[in-house]
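Comment thread on ticket #2218

A.B. wrote:
> Attaching the input chain for the structure job we discussed in standup.
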Amino acid sequence: MDLIIGIGNRLRRDDGIGPTVVESLSDQPGVECYVVQQLTPDLAQGLCEAERVLFVDAAIDGNEPHLDRVAAEATRGLGHALPPAGLLDLADRLYGNAPPAWLLTVPGCDFRFGETLSPAAIARLPEARRHIGAWLEAGSAPVRT
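C.D. wrote:
> Ran it. Output below, let me know if you need it in another format.
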């Protein structure tokens, strides 16, 4: 099973890009989607059961969505929120598996309080979905961006 995790706070306008993109995906066999405000240690068990994982999150810079490979990396302390690399490391340490992972960042420009995405963020949603479609089609093949 592939796992796609949309990360973001919908009350901070463009920070809600990750959840918005992931919720807009149609149901597909063999794909499980989560929407979370932040990555927390309790996600490690579900992560270790996936064949691959794609994290989708807002970025504060850049002009286009960007897909990068993520490797497990030890993180200082285990607070309430983890970066993707730290969650992968935790899954590996606790459950003996950290699946291959990627991070799709979608640039936002307005992170003030509010519940709607900016027009610029909305304009980037189709490109973000295309990246996810390419990632899903690639399966276990390397994804180039």
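A.B. wrote:
> Thanks. Noting for the ticket: The chain has one domain: 2-138.
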